[in-house]
Recover the amino acids of this structure.
């Protein structure tokens, strides 16, 4: 049996997604900027995808800008949002547990003279609203907080966060990295007070190399890429039509019978949490039910290095993660795990299991059986 539990790193594309991507690459391959009918057909795919995605968010299609993925979306929101509004101030607020595609652009902005406050989190990975309120200054122009943490699945209270921000200063931009949240939650940027929202296709069974940034029509932001003026000048370059259409198809499928899909993921997560909690020396770092994201389980295994356990599971065709696959191939101590207070001896003994559309209960049962077999052997080996 094969059990792929690394869906927060990337997902297998859905069959209808594959079909539309192949069709556009081999049949409807025109340049969407061309004036002939093949170009117009390519442009139609882009418009349809924007309308589908806008419908899932209840926003206008013109507020969707397609990008190369989550990292570009985050970079554009942060760097160009800050640069476009720097006359109003130079202070940004984020958290201590953001993804590298947020943390590193913020580090770049600090080099450019911006000041960044990083909010701490509690033991479940949640910021404290009183900390946020206290951090807001007259010169604050941007707040960036992830919707779902990519390592432990912590869900931030986005609407409550926005209310704190907008009460202090309605002109402060609120950016949300929703890369692990889109497809798993019903997101309403207008109602939740979100100005900028980043999404990646390959986290929702769409193709790699494509994503989008929602930009509220009232937001002042500069383009990150200049050129031929595509996408109303907000993101130049010939559009990735197969990827965009595939993203639109994936979004349509994920938000069809959405409640049932989320319920299925949550059942898998809760089953894994329950079964892991019954194994000696295992600490689960994620919360059950709707207290955390439906697709992510973080667990620490005392006495076993995460890389050793990861490869032992790999030999049994079980694929998991020891950290964010998006950040680096090199191991590093997780800022998230440190932030929630995981014991130092467990920081290098933690794995992430993440579920997707294709996972089953039988795969979870298989994984538990293998862990029960492997852990005593690996612990004896590492002690010896």
């Amino acid at each position: 049996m094969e059990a792929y539990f690394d869906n927060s790193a990337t997902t297998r594309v859905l069959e209808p997604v594959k079909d539309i991507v192949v069709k556009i690459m081999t049949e409807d391959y025109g340049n969407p900027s061309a004036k002939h009918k093949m170009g117009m057909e390519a442009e139609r795919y882009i418009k349809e995808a924007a309308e589908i995605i806008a419908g899932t968010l209840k926003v206008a299609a013109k507020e969707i800008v397609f990008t190369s993925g989550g990292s570009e979306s985050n970079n554009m929101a942060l760097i160009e949002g800050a640069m476009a509004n720097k006359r109003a101030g130079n202070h940004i607020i984020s958290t201590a547990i953001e993804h590298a595609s947020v943390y590193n652009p913020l580090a770049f902005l600090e080099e450019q003279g911006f000041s960044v406050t990083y909010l701490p989190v509690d033991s479940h990975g949640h910021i404290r609203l009183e900390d946020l309120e206290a951090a807001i200054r007259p010169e604050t122009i941007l707040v960036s907080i992830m919707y779902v943490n990519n390592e432990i699945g912590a869900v931030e209270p986005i609407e409550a966060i926005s209310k704190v921000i907008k009460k202090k200063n309605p002109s402060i931009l609120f950016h949300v990295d929703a890369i692990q949240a889109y497809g798993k939650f019903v997101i309403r940027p207008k109602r939740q007070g979100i100005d900028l929202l980043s999404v990646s296709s390959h986290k929702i069974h769409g193709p790699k190399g494509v994503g989008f940034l929602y930009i509220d029509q009232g937001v002042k932001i500069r383009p990150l890429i200049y050129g031929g003026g595509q996408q109303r000048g907000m993101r130049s370059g010939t559009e990735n039509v197969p990827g965009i259409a595939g993203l639109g198809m994936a979004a349509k499928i994920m938000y069809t019978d959405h409640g049932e899909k989320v319920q299925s993921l949550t059942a898998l997560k809760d089953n894994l949490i329950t079964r892991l909690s019954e194994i000696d020396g295992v600490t689960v770092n994620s919360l059950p039910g709707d207290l955390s994201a439906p697709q992510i389980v973080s667990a620490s295994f005392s006495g076993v290095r995460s890389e050793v356990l990861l490869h032992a599971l790999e030999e049994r065709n079980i694929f998991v993660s020891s950290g964010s696959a998006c950040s680096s191939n090199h191991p590093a101590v997780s800022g998230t795990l440190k932030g929630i207070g995981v014991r130092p001896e467990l920081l290098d003994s933690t794995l992430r299991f993440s579920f997707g559309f294709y996972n089953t209960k039988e795969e979870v049962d298989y994984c538990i059986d293998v862990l029960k077999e492997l852990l005593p052997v690996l612990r004896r080996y590492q002690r010896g």
Q: What stands out?
A: Residues 327-331 have pLDDT under 50 and may be disordered.
